[in-house]
Specification:
The chain is about 30% helix and about 20% strand. The chain is of the alpha+beta class and about 160 residues long. Strands 1-2-3-4-5 form a five-stranded mixed β-sheet, sandwiched between helices.
Length: about 160
């Protein structure tokens, strides 16, 4: 069976936002359809970023991938897979592989010689998946985040 007989990859559209939000929630990333639509619209407008969805031939979206160019001072131009989600009922069928290959193709077309990604260590099944696709662990790191709150405006006297 050829996976492409059952699934196809296409560029994401704003109308995919509701399903993209559902898939985000499957991995523990809260997202409402409205939030997903706003984020997706911004991403689609960014020429340094691309989002694809995988859908069954019936048209049901079962996964998505986002990739972006990372122009850094410390490294040559490269692309990073920012997110990859496949519906829990469609994992281990080759859908993730199709999405990663699409991201890699886009990166090559954009002149990138390297694609990187990050995966949470709690997702034990992710490591063998990526290693099978030729990715290797290059370092372990801590990820920090700080929420920036809007500054309160000072009233003028």
């Amino acid at each position: 069976m050829d996976i492409r007989d059952h699934f196809r990859v296409r560029p994401a559209k704003p109308c995919d936002a509701e399903r993209i939000a559902e898939l985000c929630r499957q991995l523990g990333y809260p997202s409402s359809p409205k939030e997903a639509e706003l984020r997706l619209t911004r991403s689609l407008a960014d020429r340094g970023s691309a989002v694809w969805v995988a859908e069954r031939r019936k048209g049901d979206v079962v996964g998505w991938v986002q990739v972006a160019i990372r122009p850094l001072v410390i490294a040559d131009r490269h692309a990073e897979i920012e997110g990859l989600v496949v519906d829990v009922d469609h994992r281990c069928m080759g859908v993730g592989r199709l999405l990663v290959k699409e991201a890699e193709l886009w990166a090559r077309k954009k002149g990138c010689g390297v694609v990187s990604l990050r995966s949470n260590v709690v997702r034990k099944e992710a490591r063998p998946f990526y290693e099978e696709l030729g990715y290797s662990v290059i370092k372990t790191q801590w990820t920090f985040r700080k929420v920036l709150r809007p500054e309160k405006r000072r009233q003028k006297c």
